Amino acid sequence: MNINHHLDEATLMSYSAGSLSQGMALVVAAHLSYCSECRERARLSDAVGGVLLESLEEQSVADDMLASILSQLDQSPPDLADQQPVRTPPSFIDPEIPAPLREYVDGSLDQLPWKRIVPGVAYYDMPWEGRGVSRLLRIAPGKSMLTHTHHGNELTLVLRGSFSDEVGRFQVGDIADLDDQIEHQPLVDSQEDCICLIATDAPLRFTTLFGKLVQPMTGF
Amino acid sequence: MKSKPPGDDVDNIIQLKHAEMASADWSALLGRLASKPDKSVYARLFNHFAPKVKAYIVRLGVALATAEELTQEVMLSVWRKAHLYHPEKAAASTWIFTLARNQSIDWMRKQKYPQYSLDEWSETASEPGQGEQSVLSDRVANAIKLLPENQAQVIYMSYFEGRSHADIASRLDIPLGSVKSRIRLASEKLKQSWGGDAYEH
Question: Would you list the domain boundaries of chain B?
Answer without folding.
Answer: 8-128, 146-201
